[in-house]
Amino acid sequence: MKSVAAHLPALQVVVPLLGALLAGFLRRGAAAFALALAVTWAVAAIACMLLWQVLQGGPISYALGGWPPPWGIEYRVDLLNAFVLVLVSLVTAVSMPFAHRSVAFEIEGYRHAWFYCMYLLCLTGLLGIAITGDAFNAFVFLEISSLSTYVLIALGRDRRALLAAFQYLVMGTIGATFYVIGVGFLYLVTGSLNMVDMAQRIGAAPPEHARAVIAGLAFLTVGVSLKLALFPLHAWLPNAYAYAPSFATAFLAATATKVAVYLLLRFFFTVFGAAIDFQALPVSQVILGLSVIAMLAASLIAVFEADLKRMLAYSSVAQIGYITLGIGIADQAGLTGSIAHLFNHALMKAALFLAVGAVFFRIGSVKLHDLAGIGRKMPLTAAAVAVAGFSLIGSPGTAGFISKWYLAVGALETGRWPLVLAIVASSLIAVAYVGRMIEVVWFRPASALAESAREPPLSMLLPILALAAATVWFGIDTRLTAGVAGKAAAMLLGGLK
Amino acid sequence: MQALRSVVDHYNYLITIFLMMAGLYAVIARGNMVKKLVGLGIFQTSVYLLYIGPGKIIGGTAPIIDPAFTLYSNPLPHVLILTAIVVGVATLALGLALVVRINEAYGTIEEDEIFRRDRET
């Protein structure tokens, strides 16, 4: 047992990778689902154990293949990425039972096993990005997750899913290539790819290399921002989320952008922040400006969307704005809000997209006018939508309130009170689109399609209810979210030069 | 003379920058999806050069330890780029597969035409 515990960091990635291979070989959809479920739960257990180990004994350094860092690839688990690992795997583990019926309904039979294969590969990539301490290894995992994401999106029924996948492939590849260019600049300056080692060597580099370091920073920021859909680099996201299969949308919305945000945090704080005088650069002003526009503009677009999935996709762009806002504020409270919102937003968006998937399972449409009055036919699902919707707005008693509170405190403490106005304004716009959603679902006379609806089967309903309940739970008990996020923020800020 | 010298000394970087811009331009400016993928391929290839160029140490030999030599070229960029090439091949293959499927579904691979047909339905 002890020897297994020492190898948890490697197992975190190896288990889903082998699972993906096996799922591809299994061919039969039901068997592949059972395997994917088992692997996802195992991965969640591993992530929780890693977080426990880190909370007990501090950061874990794992030398892959026995090659000591900085020469070999190091898996480095500290509070921040242990938290991200738990977030990704736990939300996925809770959602996973939903996949069985939903995938069987939306995807042709002979493709089921491939769907689970791609899903597990994507999970491998996301966990890999989060756990690795090597900048180039992160690129490889980034591409593993991206390539499988394109396939997941293209498996959608609508032919526009193919177009969305192609457009995301082009944008995503440009983003990933920008990332490699950035890493290339840093490698030329430092001769190292290990993130911690890089930071030390950048700090010690002669001043004539400063320009290459700044160029590397610029390329990395743009590349990763494309993957996390920071305004105005979000153009790929609405179509990709709208046309992907329901479970894929929920999975990607909950995890993929969050892992990209983690990568940005890692580079900003662990690599650049520890090496150069970060405050002297206009990074935070740029990030803050773009975040505020994302929060306001994307929310406004969401108000006028007639397709529920697209509306939630634009809401995701706005919510990512909140997360990057905290990165721009970059003080204890702001970063805590940002990291906690990674988790909270994953919970509520997974709940919402799963609920939308359940509605699609029953009536075959996600257009708002078809959903009129469906709340009376699917009361539990619609109640979960309402709860998660309130959390999107950030009303007290839900998880969304906690993260917004920390963000607002951070903005005030650093003397940027206009940001508080922006947070409030964006929340008010969220009231408009969430209110519209709830009004249509609960209070309109039932549409022809909605008349025939009923609650989804238990395997779909339970994950939705569990996630909705979790948004309330984490709105009250903040030990896991704000507690761990606060410690992670302190660690990041403590490493700054 | 100084400017000319700096051009000659850094010609590998200039080629890299040219390829990078040419590839990115093709991705943005072309409506044909296969041409977009060609542009994307050129863009990615430029990064291979960016890594491999500096790996060569002038006067250095192949990195095989031998008492007769003290200066070696850096082998690590080659290893990294081998991985990046594999990623590039996978991306291109997947992109082309998507284009085939798009052609089956829409009957065209021109982006404007596809948008027009989507608006009509």
Please describe what this structure looks like.
With 497 residues, chain A is an all-alpha fold. Chain A has 2 domains: 1-276, no CATH class; 278-497, no CATH class. Chain A is 78% helix and 2% strand. Chain A contains 20 helices and 2 strands. Chain A has helices at residues 2-6, 8-26, 29-57, 79-106, 112-131, 135-154, 160-190, 195-204, 210-228, 237-243, 246-275, 283-303, 308-329, 332-363, 379-393, 399-413, 417-443, 448-451, 458-476, 479-494; strands spanning 60-63, 74-77. Chain A has a two-stranded antiparallel ribbon. In chain A, helix 14 packs antiparallel against helix 16 and helix 14 packs antiparallel against helix 19. Chain A is globular. The two termini of chain A are 40 Å apart. The model of chain A has no long low-confidence stretch (mean pLDDT 90). With 121 residues, chain B is mainly alpha-helical. Helices cover 75% and strands 0% of the residues of chain B. Chain B has helices spanning 2-9, 11-29, 33-55, 76-106, 111-120. In chain B, helix 2 runs antiparallel to helix 3 (33-55) and helix 3 packs antiparallel against helix 4 (76-106). The mean pLDDT of chain B is 90. Classes of the chains: A mainly alpha (497), B mainly alpha (121). The interface between A and B is medium-sized, with 26 and 28 residues.
